[in-house]
Amino acid sequence: MEITETKKLYPRWVGILLGFLLPGSAHYFAGQKRTGLIWYFGLLLVPRAFSLLLTIPSRPLIAVGLVLMLVAAFFNLAMLVSSFRPVERLDFKRWMAVVALMITSMLFPNTVRVFKMSAQSMNPTLLGLSAEPSTNQTSFTDGLLRGMIYEEFRISEAGPMTGQPKMTSSAVELTIGEQTYKLPREALQSLKLKPIYEIDELLWSGILTAPDHLVVKPYFFSKPARGDIVVFSTHMIEHPHVKQGTAYIKRIVGLPGETIQIDPPHVIADGKPITTPSIFEQNHYLNDSQLTHSTSSITLGENEYFVLGDNTTPHESLDSRHFGAISKESLLGRVCSIYWPISRIRPID
Prior knowledge:
single chain
C-alpha cells in the first residue's frame, strides 16, 4: 500500500497576501503557473501602457486612458479575490524569490506619476482647492463631474472665540469655548468672525471644489524646455517658507547658463524678453524678493532652472524669485494633463 504525504497548506487569506505582494503569485504557487504568469505580467505592463494615453495631448484619449486605468484597477481587484485559495507552504528560497520579484517590480519605471495642485500659484492654468460661501447643497453629479462638495461647520459648544485664527498648511483653526474647529484655509476670506458664538450656530458653509489632479511624465527621453510646467522636489531648497519633503508645481522660465531679470511685465533672459511660448506674453511678471529691481539678476548654473508661477498676483506664488534656481536633479517630471475633476480633463501644453 502506497502512502502519500499530505502537503501542508497556508490558510486561504495568505493567498490574498501573496497576491497583494506579488500579483499572480498565489495562482502560481497553487499550481496554476500559466495563470499566475499572465496575472503578473499583465498587471505589471498593461496599466503602464494604458497610462501613456494620459500623456497624449488629446482630451478624448486622456478620457479613454482614465477609463482603461479604472478597468485595470478592477482586474487587479479580481486577481486579489481569486487569490483567496489554499497555497502550499513556501520554503525560504521561494519566499526570497517573492521578495526579489516584488522589489524588481517596484523598481520597474512608471511611465507616469500623479500629483495634485495644493495652491493657486498656477491659476488660471491649473487650479488649486477653492471654497465659495454658500448654503446650497451639491448633487452627486456635481461631486463626480466637477469635484464639488458642500460642507458646513456648526458650533457644538457655545462660548467666546479665544485668540486669533491660526493658519496651518491645510486649514485655519479657530478656538471657540473649549472646542477647536478646523476649516479649509480657503474659507478664511469669507469667514465672518464674532466675539461670542451660540450652540448650533453656523460658523461657515460653502462649496469646496477639488484641485486639479495631474498626470506627470518623467524626463526619461527628453530635456526640460522653456514653458514646461514641472513638478519638483523641495528637498534641496533652503527657504524659511518652503516646506521640506514636498513637491511644488511651477513653469520653467530660465534655462541653464542664462542670466534672468524681470523688467515688468517681461522676464528677460540674457538681455532679451522671453516671448515664446505665448504664455510669457500673456502674463504680467513682477519683481520680488531676490529680483527686487529690473537691474537685479540671477545667473543659472549648468544644471539649474528658473521657475515661476502663472499666478502673477502679488504674493500668490512662492517661486525662484524667492528661493532661487532649482536643480535638474530635483525635477520629478513635466505636467502632461489634468485627469480629474472630469469637467477639467485636458492636455497641458
